Amino acid sequence: MISQKIPKIIEDVGFDFDWIEEKVWKLQYLIEEINLEELAWHFDIPFWNKPRSFYDLKPREVIENHSKYKEEYERTMQADLSHPIDIMKNKGRWLILDGLHRLVKLKIQGKEKIRVRKIPRKEIKNIC
């Protein structure tokens, strides 16, 4: 039986609401460029799942060991970079609403600048 309990680290850094990605995509905000390093902290949080588990795979593990996490790596490399990464300020820093696979792919490709849309917290009511 896989434990479905959200790890404390996710609770500590994550949003305190659930959102619908399709609603985020429909929002109209300007795209701007930021340094990838502003979001690099995401690589050390287990936002992904190993096979038959729950929130126990860090993006950095996929970045550093493509062959061990082949399925997640392939999913990452298929990410469509034509879309910006949607972020929202949360607990004092930018947190990804949509686009972690794109961020990881950009890191693997050696990009330093990334395209984002900064979604204000006032939109929470419109994306839930």
Brief summary of the model shown:
With 128 residues, the protein is α+β, with helices and mostly antiparallel strands.
Structure, explained:
With 128 residues, the protein is of the alpha+beta class. The chain has one domain: Conserved hypothetical protein from pyrococcus furiosus pfu- 392566-001, ParB domain, CATH 3.90.1530. The protein is 30% helix and 17% strand. The chain is built from six helices and four strands; from the N terminus they run ααβααββαβα. Strands 1-4-2-3 form a four-stranded mixed beta sheet. It is globular and about 40 Å long. It starts with 7 loop residues before the first helix and ends with a helix.
> What name does CATH use for the topology?
Conserved hypothetical protein from pyrococcus furiosus pfu- 392566-001, ParB domain
Proportion of helical residues: 25-40%
Low-confidence stretches: none
Spatial extent as radius of gyration:
15 Å
Terminus-to-terminus distance: 30 Å
What is the CATH architecture descriptor?
Alpha-Beta Complex
Q: Please provide the count of β strands.
A: 4
Order of strands across the widest beta sheet? Answer: 1-4-2-3
The major sheet is characterized as: 4 strands, mixed
